[in-house]
Amino acid sequence: MDLDIHAGEFLAIMGSSGCGKTTTLRMLAGLDAPTSGEIRIGGELMNDVKPHERDTPLVWQSLALFPFLSARENVEFGLKMRGVGKDERKRRALEWLDRMEIGEFAERNVATLSGGQKQRVALARSLVMEPKMLLLDEPLSALDANLVIRMQAVLTRLQKELGITFVYVTHSQSEAFAMADRVVIMSQGEIAQVGSPKDIYRAPANRFVAEFVGRNNILAGRVTSQTDEYVCVSTPSGDFTAAAPADPRATGSPLTFAVSADLVSVSAEKPDSANTVHCTLISEEFIGSVVTLFLESVDGHEFKVQMQERDLIELDLCSGSQIWLSWLPENAHVLEGE
Amino acid sequence: MNQNRLLNIILALYVLCIFVFIFAPILFSLVFSFNSQRFPTIPLGHFTTEWYAKIFADPDVWLAARNSLIVSVSTALLATFLGFCTAYSDFRYNFRFKGPYLALILLPPTIPLIIMALAMLAWLSRLGLSGQLWSIILAHSVLTAPFAMAIIRLRLNQMDPDLEAAAWNLGSSEWQAMRHIIIPFSAPAIVSSLCLTAAVSFDEFSISWFVSGLNKTVPVVILEIVQGNIDPQVNAIGTFVFLTSMTLVILAQVFFISRQVKSHS
C-alpha cells in the first residue's frame, strides 16, 4: 500500500477485521516490521527505528493501562522513561488529567475507574508526551453508545486544539465519518479508497467500497451506448442510465454502478424517469426517523431504499406491496472495474 | 433444601476428616515434644522443655540449621530467577522446539526423588562438586525451578500482552519495560515463588542426604537422631521444621491468592 498522511490531519483507517488496518498502525509505531517497503515520518526513514525511539504514542484498543499504578503514575510513565524530573512530570500529568476532566481521580488506581475515565487516562498518557502524531486503535470500541458520541467530541476538539496528526483505526463507519478529515478504506492489506467521508459515501471507487460503506444498490450489466454525460447500461433488472465515468467504456463492455439507498424514490404509479424498477416489498427495518425498505425486482435482485419514516406513512405499504423505484441518472455512480 | 443441608454436613465432615488425618500426627508430635516421658505413650508425663533445651544445646543441630538456611535461601533465589526467565521466555517468544523445551523444564518434579538424588550424586561427584553446600543448592534449584516457573507463568497469563508493548511505545527500552512493568506485575508471584521454593528446599531430604557429604541439612540431622536413639528430640525439631515450612507455604498462598482475587475484582 502507498499512503501519504498529511501533518495535522485527522485520518481514519477503516476496514473489516483482518484487513490490515491495525497492522498498519503497529508498523507506524514500530511494533510490527514491514516485510518490504519504507515507512517515513517527517521525511525520516523509520524502518529500523526501535519502538521506544519513536514519537508515536498509541492509544490501545485494550487501553493497556498499567494496572498497578494510579491514574497519575500512568500518565507520568512516558515522561519518566524520557528522564523528565519528578516535580515536572507530576505537574504535567496533573495538567493533562485536569484537561481530560478527571483531575479528581489522579491518585486512584486505574482498576477502580469507569470505562470512560480509563479512556481519558489512556488519552492523557499518550498526549502528555506532546507527540506530533497520535495513533488510536479502535479506542472507543469498549464504550457504550452514548459515551462514544461524547468521546468523539472530545477527540475532534483535542485534535483541532493541538493541531497534531491523528491516525485513527476503526471498523465503525459512524466513528470514521464523524471525526475524520480523510478516510482510508482498506481491504486485504490494500487501500481500496482514500478520500473525504463525503467522497467515499457519495462516490465509492469500487464494488468493495460501495458494499462496505453505507447502503448501496449495486447493479452490473453491459454498456449499450454512451454520450459525454451519460452511459446506458443493460442489466438483468432492466436498462438504466448512469452518469458517465471519467474513463469512457467501450460499447458492450461490462460496467457496474451503485445507487445510494437514500437517493432512490418510491411511488405507487410508474414514474416518468430514465431509471425505473418494479419491485415487491419484502421487509422494512425501522431504526427511528429513518426506515430501510428491502425489495425484490422481478429478476430477483435485491434493492434497498432509505427514507424518512413520515414519508413512508403516506405510501401505506405492507409486505408484498408492488411499488416503483426510480432515481436520477446523475445519482447512479459508475464503479471502477467490471 | 433438607437434602442440600445434609450434603453440606457430610462434605464438612469429610473435609474435617482430611484435616484430622493430615494434622493429627503433627499435633501428636507437638504434644510429645513437651512430654517428659522418653517414649510416646499415654498417659502423658509432666510438661517439660527438656527436649528443646537438648536440641538447642546440640552444635550439630545449629550447624544443620545454618546449612539449611543458606541452602533454602540460595535455592529460592536461584530457582525463582530461573523460573522467571523460563516463564517470561514462554510468555514472550515463540520458537522452534518450544514444546520440548517446556517439557524438559517441567520434568524434574516428576522424576522419583531417589533417582534424581542418585543421578545428582553421580554427576556432581564426577565434576568434583559433591559434598559442598552449593552442590545441594544446585540440585535443589533443578528440583524447584519448575514450581517457580509455574507460579510466575500463571501470573504472566493474567497480564494484558499489550502492556509491555505499551511501555515500549511510551519510550521504555526492553530492559526498562522489564523493570518497570513486567517485574512489578509479577512481584506477587515472585514473592510467592521465593517462599514456596524455600519451603521445598528446607524440607527436602533425599537429595540433601545424597549430595550433602559432611554439610548436613536439618532433615538429614533428623534422620541421624532417629537412627541414633529414639527420644522426643525428634518431636521438638520436627515441630520447628513444620512451623517453618507452614509459614513459608502460607505466605506463598497469601501473596498469590490475594493478588488473584484483586485482579479479578
From TrEMBL, chain A:
Domain (ABC transporter) spans: 1-213
Q: Does the keyword Hydrolase apply?
A: yes
- Superkingdom is Bacteria
Give the top-level enzyme category. hydrolase
Write down any Gene Ontology CC term: ATP-binding cassette (ABC) transporter complex
The protein's Enzyme Commission number: 3.6.3.19
Q: Which InterPro entries match?
A: AAA+_ATPase, ABC_SmlMolc_Importer, ABC_transporter-like_ATP-bd, ABC_transporter-like_CS, Mo/tungstate-bd_C_term_dom, P-loop_NTPase, Transp-assoc_OB_typ2
Keywords tagged on the record: ATP-binding, Hydrolase, Nucleotide-binding, Transport
Q: Name one GO molecular function term.
A: ATP hydrolysis activity
Record-stated family:
Belongs to the ABC transporter superfamily.
What this protein is called in its record is: Maltose/maltodextrin import ATP-binding protein MalK
Q: Which organism is it from?
A: Roseovarius aestuarii
From TrEMBL, chain B:
Cited Pfam families: BPD_transp_1
- Highest rank taxon of the organism: Bacteria
Q: What is its main location?
A: membrane
Q: Any one Gene Ontology biological process term?
A: transmembrane transport
Any one GO CC term of the record:
plasma membrane
Please tell me whether the keyword Transmembrane is annotated for this protein.
yes
Q: Where are the transmembrane segments?
A: 12-34, 69-89, 101-125, 131-152, 181-202, 236-257
* Signal peptide annotation: none
SUPFAM superfamilies this protein is in? MetI-like
Q: How does it sit in the membrane?
A: Multi-pass membrane protein
Record domain ABC transmembrane type-1: where: 65-252
Keywords in alphabetical order: Cell membrane, Membrane, Transmembrane, Transmembrane helix, Transport
**Where does it localize?**
Cell membrane
> Which family does the UniProt entry place this protein in?
Belongs to the binding-protein-dependent transport system permease family. CysTW subfamily.
Q: What is this protein called?
A: Inner membrane ABC transporter permease protein YdcV
What is the native source organism of this protein?
Roseovarius aestuarii
